[in-house]
Amino acid sequence: MLSELSPSPTCLWEAPAATVLAGDDPGDLPGPWRLMLLGDGSPTRHLHLLTGHPVSVELVAMAEEPEGQAALGCPSEVKELTPPLLRRQVWLSCGEQTLAWAESWWNQDEANQHLQDRNLPIWLSLTQGRSELFREVDGLALVQEPWLEDRFGCSGPFWSRHYRFFRQGRELTVIREVFSPALEEWLGATPRQPLHLTR
Q1: CA-to-CA distance for 176 and 94, rounded, in angstroms?
Q2: pTM > 0.90
Q3: What ranges make up the beta strands (E) of 30-169?
Q4: Where is 199: in which H helix or E strand?
Q5: CATH architecture of 10-66+76-187
Q6: Contact (Cβ atoms closer than 8 angstroms) between residue 89 and residue 60
Q7: Which strands form 10-14's sheet, in the order they lie side by side?
Q8: Spatial distance between the Cα atoms of 26 and 37, rounded to a whole number of angstroms
Q9: Average pLDDT by consecutive 10-residue portion of the chain (199 residues)?
Q10: CA 84 to CA 82: how far, in whole Å?
């Protein structure tokens, strides 16, 4: 049985979108974490390659977003999607380890078209038939929630990013991902404090 949608995680610090889009130097963020958080590759593919385990998706909730509530705690880019909106929340695990939590916002018709198997990673759903996609990373943040700490098994804050998928210039979805510090086993240690971004 699916749970109710959780509120979006509390953002403690966020890099300016213009800084992220410009690819400005993300301060003390180590190289492997830069690739994971700011690269335009598939995170589920990265998790599989890092751990050697396929990514399993645990669907937490998927429900219609009440009109006007999409602006509460969500990335500003969600406002560019055409309502009515659906929001989907999942845990991503490799083997026994939960390595990420994600939420995504969709136009309802787009969700019905692209998410027919709700337990598949979004990347696989969108690229069936080898359709061409463009991913644009819009934001980098540190977030905090007790339920993230419970599931990840460690204290926060946690690195998060959000991005959009486009097809033929049209926005399909906005996705936010939060990553477990357990990834330090493969990516190395990373500071979990605001970065001093430079130009």
Answers
A1: 19
A2: no
A3: 55-65, 85-94, 97-107, 134-144, 158-167
A4: none
A5: 3-Layer(aba) Sandwich (3.40)
A6: yes
A7: 10-14, 134-144, 158-167, 170-179, 97-107, 85-94, 55-65
A8: 10
A9: 81 81 71 88 89 93 75 83 90 95 89 63 49 76 96 95 84 92 95 72
A10: 6
